[in-house]
Design a protein that fits this description.
Number of domains: 2
Low-confidence stretches: 19-74, 79-88
Strand order of the largest sheet: 3-5-4-8-10-9
Helix content: 25-40%
CATH superfamily of the largest domain: Uracil-DNA glycosylase-like domain
Bound molecules: iron/sulfur cluster
Distance between the termini: 66 Å
Strand content: 5-15%
Number of helices: 10
CATH topology of the largest domain: Uracil-DNA Glycosylase, subunit E
């Protein structure tokens, strides 16, 4: 047997063993190290942390972006270390390729008729910000102003979000901001009132969102509000219980749920809790989080 065939046999045997473990309910392999950089999946986890079995089974030699399967409900990531995370190389796409793919996707979204929201939109709100961003914020859907301007988070809640972003030490356009759905949902009997997107509307729009995230491949995400947090984690709990604890999006991107800025406009006393959540994000991204709430 040639060395190449022998290596192939060993790999197949190891994979069969891991598949058997997965079938028998084993979810983590203690002591297995994540694949070495620059594989994107390794970058957010401390070397000693257990690796999800699904990730251990994933191919690492072909340099492709990992697949985006729905995450297990409620998967919780270990708290971020106090020390800044080591810088990790970006994923395989160049900035130019990233922009090209997002531009193609934005055109698809602009002509989308997959759900009834297309019939009442003025403009789709695809995203705003920097496609090379290491940090991505996710809301639930566009409101009146976003529908008019064709960008997410440009109304009063967006202005507060911009202040939060600046307080974290980023420029407004250093981060990337998008919603779970791209067209505005509003109450059928009162077009002036926004509403949450329905599960059907979110499911129809989800392929766009997943493709956006696959291209962006950020180091961390922040889910703004319960609808986005539940949609991205699969958890059923409300935002009061979900916020403040790291989760994993698609089993690999650290995601911090926190309150929506629109809620903060109504309940400003909650700003301290949001700031605590954002400080955890800053720590994970290696930013100075020692400053007080700004
Ligand atoms: Fe298409 Fe999403 Fe708009 Fe529905 S919300 S029409 S799925 S782009």
């Amino acid at each position: 047997m040639t060395p190449r065939r022998e290596l192939h046999s060993l790999v197949m045997a190891a994979r069969a063993h891991l598949d058997a473990l997965a079938d028998s309910g084993v979810e983590h392999l203690p002591g297995v190290l994540p694949p070495p950089a620059p594989v994107a999946a390794s970058r957010a986890r401390a070397p000693s942390a257990p690796v999800p079995l699904a990730e251990a089974l994933a191919p690492v030699a072909n340099n492709r972006a990992p697949s985006f399967e729905p995450p297990p409900p409620g998967e919780v990531l270990a708290p971020s270390p106090r020390a800044p995370a080591a810088p990790v190389p970006r994923a395989v796409l160049s900035g130019e390729e990233r922009r090209k793919r997002l531009s193609v996707l934005a055109e698809e979204v602009a002509s989308c008729t997959r759900c009834p929201l297309h019939a009442t939109r003025t403009k789709t709100a695809f995203a705003r910000g920097n496609p090379d961003a290491e940090l991505v914020f996710v809301g639930e859907g566009p409101g009146t102003e976003e529908d008019r301007q064709g960008e997410p988070f440009v109304g009063p809640a967006g202005q507060l979000l911009d202040k939060m972003i600046v307080a974290m030490g980023f420029g407004r356009d250093d981060v990337y901001i998008l919603n779970v759905v791209k067209c505005r949902p509003f109450e059928p009997d009162d077009a002036t009132k926004d509403r949450k997107p329905t599960p059907e509307e979110m499911a129809a729009c989800r392929p766009f969102f997943d493709r956006q995230l696959e291209v962006l491949d950020p180091k961390a995400m922040v889910a703004l509000g319960g609808t986005a947090a539940q949609a991205l984690t699969g958890a059923a709990a409300g935002i009061t219980r979900l916020r403040g604890t790291w989760r994993l999006f698609k089993g690999r991107i650290p995601l911090m749920p926190t309150f929506h800025p629109a809620y903060l406009l109504r309940s400003p006393e909650k700003k301290r809790e949001v700031w605590d959540d954002l400080k955890q994000v800053m720590q994970r991204l290696g930013k100075d989080s020692s400053t007080k709430e700004r």
